[in-house]
Specification:
Helix content is about 35%, strand content about 5%. Strands 2-1-3 form a 3-stranded antiparallel beta sheet, with no helix packed on it. A hairpin with a 4-residue loop joins β1 and β2. The protein is mainly alpha-helical and about 110 residues long. It starts with about 20 loop residues before the first strand and ends in a 13-residue tail after the last helix. It contains 3 helices and 3 strands, in the order ββααβα.
């Protein structure tokens, strides 16, 4: 799934989406396009160079996991924001620096 040569130098970098939107919880990648939820959510606002960088990561991801090791979770387009909030929230819950911004008054 390399970036098509016709767009390699263009500012109009196409999405690698294949409309097979199933997130693999073991890898954090979509089994259709091999992007993370963060990459999928940010795609429309990414700079062309950043999009090309994501494209460059996809062949290795695909080669590493040709067969998904676990059941997939289907994510519909209207769920992306909710899933993103869930992922961001889980990162906040795992903070160890003592600066828990979600903690109320103690």
């Amino acid at each position: 799934m390399p970036l098509p040569r016709s767009v390699a130098a263009s500012d109009d970098v196409p999405s690698p989406c294949t409309n097979i939107c199933r997130m693999n919880p073991a890898t954090g990648w979509c089994s259709g396009c091999w992007r993370t939820l963060a990459e999928i959510a940010a795609w429309s606002t990414m700079a062309a160079d950043d999009k090309r960088h994501v494209w460059s990561l996809l062949p290795a991801r695909r080669a590493e996991h040709t067969e998904p090791p676990v059941m997939h979770r289907r994510v519909r387009a209207n769920e992306v924001d909710a899933v993103r909030a869930e992922v961001v929230g889980s990162h906040d819950d795992n903070r160890t620096d003592g600066n828990d911004s979600n903690a109320g008054p103690r």
